[in-house]
From TrEMBL:
Domain Major facilitator superfamily (MFS) profile intervals: 20-433
InterPro entries the UniProt entry points to: MFS, MFS_dom, MFS_trans_sf
Species whose genome carries this gene: Streptomyces halstedii
Superkingdom, natural source: Bacteria
Protein name as catalogued: MHS family MFS transporter
Chief subcellular location: membrane
Transmembrane domains' residue ranges: 61-81, 93-111, 117-137, 158-181, 193-214, 249-270, 282-301, 313-332, 338-357, 377-397, 409-426
Record carries keyword NADP: no
Membrane topology: Multi-pass membrane protein
Keywords recorded for this protein, A-Z: Cell membrane, Membrane, Transmembrane, Transmembrane helix, Transport
Localisation: Cell membrane
């Protein structure tokens, strides 16, 4: 089968960079809405609905294990969508990933619980979580590439940051809908069946997202790959030519951000309500407010990265996350609402320093003709090692005693690994501190 021409991929006149950035933000927001909605439900609802015969601790572990399944599926989605994204284009793969996530989330809202169909309830939950994971695996790297590859000169980090804003935006949207539905129905009705409503709303939200995404044209970088006849048969294998030292250091540099974010966004909801007695709505509102800070500060940090370079910013942000992780649970464990808000707000202010540019750092590791495959490999592997296991590991470290000391050491260790990886990466990769204009398709770019 011959490759479509660049004109066929472009779909007409080129899309304005601003419209593309907004479209990628809208799409990632909806995908992360679905993904975080599951995380919130896993922390607060799913142990009762799908694992009622287990003890509270075992039920929470089982619910978080289904959360982890989605992360395990993400590399599969990243590899499949990355392969076709490098061979047939970014746009088509991003449309399919959005549909998969929406269908998976909508069907989760329709699954009968354990009391109705027994063993098959958690089985169906896991299967649909796999669908979600595959869909998000295709979204993460692809949306960053689509926006970054449309970026005007000198704004590569800023535009790559728009899809990153979808992470906190999706969390805010998921928590608000979850909270409003809970408030309108009351705890008993919401726990029994009302939790399904936010999942069923995914169908409507994804339909809106598709309308926006279908209006965006193909990436200029991919069109240049087509013009130069640079499409390769196995882009993932070609991406390994970057070299395992650089691939490994890039992975280490980004792994902590995912772990810290999921402890902050998901684990604290379960731990705070069940172990410390915080009110459910108070915690959801506090995490949501912190996510608003996260969202609002990303454009600030990406503009700084474009103007002054992202190396020092990323290393400094990695050190700041490590320091705050050492303080986070001592503040949170006081049971004082004001200090809990301070702990969560600190996360919302510090996490975006590294999160906002990590997508661009990963993408600029690879030349354009294998960028989707290579970026997906790093991003999704880091998500498994970091975020996918973090809530489950944190719950296990609590044990029966309920002490958060082990969780603190776990986060500090992860942050130290990423800080060391970032320092080593930036020392071993030659060149300037920030990515410039789009390089030739087969030229490995700089960090």
């Amino acid at each position: 089968m011959s490759n479509p021409s660049p004109e066929e991929h472009a779909g007409g006149a080129a899309t304005a960079p601003g419209r593309t950035a907004v479209a990628t933000l809208a799409g990632t927001t909806l995908e992360w809405y679905d993904f975080f909605l599951y995380g919130t439900a896993a922390a607060l609802i799913f142990d009762k609905q799908f694992f009622p015969s287990l003890s509270p601790t075992a039920g929470t572990l089982a619910a978080f294990s289904t959360l982890a399944v989605g992360f395990v599926a993400r590399p599969l989605g990243g590899l499949v969508f990355g392969h076709f994204g490098d061979r047939i284009g970014r746009k088509a793969t991003l449309v399919v990933s959005l549909v998969m996530m929406g269908v998976g989330s909508t069907l989760i809202g329709a699954i009968p619980n354990y009391d109705s169909i027994g063993f098959w309830a958690p089985v169906l939950l896991v299967l649909l979580r796999i669908v979600q994971g595959i869909g998000l695996g295709g979204e993460g790297a692809g949306a960053t590439l689509m926006s970054m590859e449309h970026a005007p000169k000198g704004k590569r980090n800023l535009y790559a940051g728009f899809p990153q804003m979808g992470t906190p935006a999706g969390l805010v949207l998921a928590n608000i809908i979850f909270l409003v539905t809970n408030s309108l129905m009351g705890d008993n009705a919401f726990t029994a069946w009302g939790w399904r409503i936010p999942f069923l709303l995914s169908f409507v939200l994804v339909a809106v997202g598709l309308v926006i995404r279908l209006r965006v044209t193909e990436s200029p970088s991919f069109n240049r790959v087509l013009e130069q006849d640079d499409v390769v048969r196995f882009p993932l294998a070609e991406s390994f030519k970057v070299g395992f030292p650089r691939l490994g250091l890039t992975l280490l540099a980004v792994v902590a951000n995912s772990a810290v974010a999921y402890v902050f966004m998901v684990f604290t909801l379960s731990y705070g309500t069940k172990n410390l007695g915080y009110d459910r709505q108070f915690l959801i509102l506090s995490v949501t407010a912190a996510a608003v800070l996260w969202f609002a500060t990303i454009p600030v940090w990406t503009k700084i990265a474009d103007r002054y370079g992202r190396r020092a910013m990323f290393v400094g942000g990695s050190a700041a996350i490590l320091a705050w992780c050492a303080l986070f649970f001592p503040l949170f464990d006081t049971g004082n609402g004001v200090l809990a808000v301070v702990a969560l707000a600190g996360m919302g202010l510090i996490i975006p320093v590294t999160h906002c540019v990590q997508g661009a750092i990963i993408a600029d590791t690879f030349p354009a003709h294998v960028r989707y495959s290579g970026s997906s490999l790093i991003l999704q592997t880091g998500a498994i090692l970091g975020g996918g296991l973090a809530p489950m590991i944190s719950t296990a470290l609590l044990g029966d005693g309920g002490s958060s000391t082990g969780v603190t050491w776990y986060l500090v260790t992860m942050c130290a690994i990423s800080l060391g990886g970032a320092v080593a990466l930036f020392r071993t990769v030659p060149g300037g501190p920030a990515a410039g204009n789009e390089p030739p398709a087969r030229t490995l770019t700089q960090v």
